[in-house]
Amino acid sequence: MEAAQNGNLEEVQRCISIPGVRVDCLDEHGMTPLQHAAYKGRPDIARILLNQGADVNDRNHEHGYTALMFAAISGNTEATRLMLEAGGSTSHVNSVGRTAAQMAGFVGQSQNSSMINNFFSKEDLDEYTVIRGHEKEPKLPGHLVQPLHTLILHSNLHPVFISMYLQEHSDLMADVTKIVRLLDLLCEKMMKQKATNEVMAMKFHYLSAILKQCEKCWKSAGNLNAWIKSLVKGRDEDGFAEQQEKLIRASVRDFPYIESQLMQQMVRSIAPVKIGQSPTALNILSSAVNGQKFATDDESCCTCGQLHAEKKCSVCKMVKYCDQKCQKLHWSTHKKFCKELADDYVKMMKRLKEEQEKEERKKKENEKEKEKTEELTKKLEKIAISPAEG
Ligand SMILES: [Zn+2]
Ligand SMILES: [Zn+2]
């Protein structure tokens, strides 16, 4: 127990090899070694304990915390992922009714909270690769488990990002009808199971809606180029990608479970926003599904929404892209505004420079003032001393 608490890997290994030592022994607070390892953010130790049969869903802790909850608040994403993969329940609540994802969000570990909300194990898909009852073929061909699982786990919900992923995974598009049907089924399952998961249901529904659109284009053209282009295209007055906004708004409105609190909340958030203004439907969807605050747009790719886009438009330096591919897609819209943005950039830099110069001038003036004061003080001191001397 102490070894797990102190993060002593070798000692943990030694202890659990001693016959008679229970891997799920409890400390005075009802905490197991696995929970300690999770709380300390030590996936290496947690892995050993899990391999020894530690119960990831042990609930003897005095406040009902599970190993997943401890990992979630530790801020360690690897430990969190490990608990999820080991089958840590995402719906268990602690003694005050909070789930692991809510606890992570509460302490500011939004990456962990997003990971938990978006977690869906590969095994959950595996069951659909088996032929059941009167089926002639499985709902999901085995070779599509991996690419579909990756699609489901993406936290970037930008329709261009999803469509580009599908474009690259033509095997998914070849069976798109099946995939759409399965996503709809998964959405239904999330809503009808005992522990309803509205977040995942919304995500499955949204993915299904995008795939249905992709399907149309794929069937007529054999690729998604025209579809992706239409999504990226900005309207004339301000370059805002209107079609994306409308697509996401429609998909939220079409969520088949109108009694869902999450859906109602989203519709209420979207309704008063004029198309083209913030927050966008994508902002609202992402924050509902991923539990994140709205990502600031200047960090993400203008075309596909991926975070940490590094490449800037070389002319205006005001927009960012993942790579040349994303930049090329956006150019037909961006070129109309690039010059304007470039002027803005020059103005912005000029203003920045002016402010800097002003700051510097002020600093110099302050220094001069200080020197003067010092000089004066010295003079006064001399005067004060002189008569005494004399
Ligand atoms: Zn991009
Ligand atoms: Zn530009």
Automatic annotation (TrEMBL):
Segments forming a coiled coil: none
CC annotations in GO: cilium
Top-rank taxon: Eukaryota
Main subcellular location of this protein, as a coarse class: other
GO molecular function: zinc ion binding
PANTHER family: ANKYRIN REPEAT AND MYND DOMAIN-CONTAINING PROTEIN 2 (PTHR24150)
Keywords associated with the record: ANK repeat, Cell projection, Cilium, Metal-binding, Repeat, Zinc, Zinc-finger
Entry's localization field: Cell projection, Cilium
Region (Disordered): 354-390
Compositionally biased region (Basic and acidic residues): 354-382
Stored Gene3D superfamilies: 6.10.140.2220, Ankyrin repeat-containing domain (1.25.40.20)
Organism from which the protein derives: Capitella teleta
Pfam families assigned to the protein according to its UniProt record, in alphabetical order: Ank_2 (PF12796), zf-MYND (PF01753)
Protein name in UniProt: MYND-type domain-containing protein
ANK repeat placement: 29-61, 63-95
Residues in MYND-type domain copies: 301-338
